[in-house]
Amino acid sequence: MITHLNGRLIEKSPTHIVIECAGIGYEVKISLNTFSALGNKEDIKLYTQFIVREDAQILYGFKEKEEREMFNLLVSVSGIGPSTAIIMLSGLTPGEIAYAITSEDVKTIQGVKGIGAKTAQRVIVDLKDKVLKFEVSEDNLGNSNNTLRFDALTALVSLGFDKKQAEKALNKVSDEQDSVELLIKDALKVL
Q1: Can you tell me the distance from the alpha carbon of 139 to that of 145, in angstroms, rounded to the nearest whole number?
Q2: How far apart, in whole angstroms, are the C-alpha atoms of residue 62 and residue 48?
Q3: In the CATH scheme, what is the code of domain 146-190?
C-alpha cells in the first residue's frame, strides 16, 4: 500500500494534482483543504489512501494525517463513497466534521452535496464514538458552531473563494446577521 508520496508538484488543480516521485508521475485526487494547504510549494509530501474498485484504482492525497484518518472513517459508513468523502473534506476540516458528528448536527452533515437525511444520521450513529480522538478546539472549528456562518462559508467556497480568505471576511463582518444571504453579502463587500 502507498502511505505517502514525497516529491515534486508537476500539476495542480482544485480536484487533483500530479506529483513526480523518482521519475514516476502519480495522479492524486485531493480535497479543497489540501489544495489550499499546498500553496505554491514545489516539493511536497502527501499522505495517501489507495482505493481499488472494480473499474478503477484511485489514489487520494491529504496534506495532514488527520484528514486521511477522517476520510477513512467517512468511507467506512454505508452510503458514503470516496468522492462524497472528498467533497465533505473540501467544505469542512476534520475538526469541523468531528464537531458536527459529536454535536449531532445533522443539518451541517446533510449540507454536503450527495448526503441525505438518512445518510447524515448514519454518519452520526456510526462515527460518534470514533471521532472523539479528533481535537475539537476553537481554532480547529473556526466558526462552524454557528450554522449561519458555516453555511455562508460553504457558499463562499463554492463560489470559488479561498476558504481562508472567506473565513477572514466572515470574521470581519457582524455576528448579528439573521440570514445567510445577508452574511454572504457583507462578506463579499470585504472580499
Answers
A1: 12
A2: 6
A3: 1.10.8
Residues 105-163 have pLDDT tens digits of 899 999 888 899 999 999 999 998 888 777 554 444 444 335 677 777 777 877 778 87
How far is the C-alpha of 141 from the C-alpha of 163, rounded, in Å?
13
pTM of the model: 0.71
State the DSSP H helix or E strand holding residue 27, giving kind and residue range, or none if neither.
strand 24-29
Domain ranges of the chain: 4-62, 65-139, 146-190
Parallel, antiparallel or unpaired: strands 57-62 and 4-12:
unpaired
60, 131, 121: which is closest to 93 by C-alpha? 131
CATH of span 65-139: 1.10.150.20
CB atoms within 10 A of CB 160: 8
